[in-house]
Write a structure and sequence with these properties.
Length: about 110
Amino acid sequence: MKKFLVICLTACSLFLVNLNHPAAEENKAKTESVQLTEAQKTEIAKIQKQILADKKILIEKYVEYGALSKEEADKMVSHFEKHYKMMEEHNFQIPPHRPHARHTHK
């Protein structure tokens, strides 16, 4: 019984200590996005297209070696293309990271 009480008190104290964690305050300040110039967007788009092409080549190799089926490869390539289009729509801004410990719901 004493062991159980000690464990409960320890868990409660750890929870209370993390309520005002400084990292939670820092994440709120970092949510501002940087405005990229057209030249920067063009350069990032070029790199992202190259990454997409390399991923397609990699997936094709996995299909060639029999590690993936053609259907699985098509799904993966489709997902990569959707991700690229989403990044393009959002002007190649990195989406904000949501901390796992505290989800902020609006």
